[in-house]
């Protein structure tokens, strides 16, 4: 049975042992144990040791999905980074700062069949988003809005609308390939308003969820990416009415004064599937 797609993915710095110890209890659907940007270069080896220990001591039966973000393959640390995953075949690898699909080769060669998420955060990776989405082993794309903004020269605004073109490019590539798509982090964690705006926008666009940098962001992310009771009830009425119509040889039906045809019914089924695969 396929695993549900996490709504929230919380970054945890790999060198912060005290944070790693609490990672499974922060309320996120998934945690991303980070060996990359949040870890100073001088502490990479220490971070690898701490992440390996965190994986080895992960609470038995925890429903929290585990991801590890390695360093960019161009630095030549792939083998060192992936060594911490030894024996943990359900851990997903997040690969940052790649421009071409060929840069995934050393990762895939050592990944032992693990899922790979590509961090789309350079101008060239965005232009090649479709190729990354279609690559063997890649099960999701994640928009790295901060790095992409810096590389392009975008000025970040509270509404985040400057990233809309990037969001659509990534989302279309992911959906065409049938893989997951996650929105960029929101750097503001003390004021919930910017995060809520970004979450509502990304959820309306069709993203599966959003990466987080602080546990305080998780409830807002879950609210935005979880179908409400009203959404589920409405979707159920649509599906039941449409299926009844089809069984009578009718291709469309009216529900609450709106026409329901195949694409509307499929949207409703997606809502029910997402609701069934998530926990509050």
Number of strands: 10
Q: Which structural category fits the helices and strands?
A: alpha/beta
Q: What is the overall pLDDT average?
A: 91
How are the strands ordered across the major sheet?
1-2-3-4-5-6-7-8
**Helix and strand run:** EHEHEHEHEHHEHHEHEHHEEH
Largest sheet: 8 strands, parallel, barrel
Q: Describe the global form.
A: globular
Strand share of the residues? 15-25%
Radius of gyration: 20 Å
Distance between the termini: 20 Å
Total number of helices: 12
Percentage of residues in helical conformation: 40-55%
Low-confidence runs: none
Task: Sum this structure up briefly.
The chain is an alpha/beta fold and about 280 residues long.
Describe the structure.
- The structure is a single chain.
- The chain is of the alpha/beta class.
- It is 42% helix and 16% strand.
- It has twelve helices and ten strands.
- The strands form two sheets. The protein has an eight-stranded parallel beta barrel with strand order 1-2-3-4-5-6-7-8, surrounded by four helices.
- Helix 11 crosses helix 12.
- The longest helix has 19 residues, at 229-247.
- The model has no long low-confidence stretch (mean pLDDT 91).
């Amino acid at each position: 049975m396929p695993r549900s797609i996490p709504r929230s993915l919380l970054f945890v710095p790999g060198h912060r042992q005290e944070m790693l110890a609490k990672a499974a209890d922060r309320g996120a659907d998934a945690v991303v144990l980070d060996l990359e940007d949040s870890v100073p270069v001088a502490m990479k080896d220490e971070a690898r040791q701490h992440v390996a220990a965190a994986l080895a001591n992960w609470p038995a039966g925890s429903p929290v999905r585990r991801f590890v973000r390695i360093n960019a393959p161009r630095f030549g640390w792939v083998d060192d980074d992936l060594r911490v995953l030894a024996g943990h075949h359900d851990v997903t690898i997040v690969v940052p700062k790649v421009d071409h699909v060929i840069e995934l080769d050393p990762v895939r060669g050592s990944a032992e069949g693990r899922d790979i998420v590509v961090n789309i955060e350079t101008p060239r990776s965005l232009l090649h988003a479709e190729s990354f989405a279609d690559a063997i082993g890649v099960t999701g794309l994640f928009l790295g809005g901060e790095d992409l903004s810096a590389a392009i020269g975008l000025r970040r605004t509270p509404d985040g609308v400057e990233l809309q073109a990037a969001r659509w490019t990534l989302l279309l590539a992911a959906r065409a390939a049938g893989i997951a798509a996650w929105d960029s982090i929101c750097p503001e964690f003390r004021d919930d308003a910017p995060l809520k705006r970004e979450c509502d926008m990304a959820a309306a666009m069709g993203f599966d969820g959003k990466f987080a940098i602080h546990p305080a962001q998780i409830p807002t992310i879950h609210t935005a990416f979880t179908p409400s009771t009203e959404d589920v009830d409405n979707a159920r009425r649509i599906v039941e009415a449409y299926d009844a119509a089809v069984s009578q040889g009718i291709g469309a039906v009216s529900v609450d004064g709106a026409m329901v045809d195949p694409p509307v019914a499929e949207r409703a089924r997606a809502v029910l599937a997402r609701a069934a695969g998530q926990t509050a």
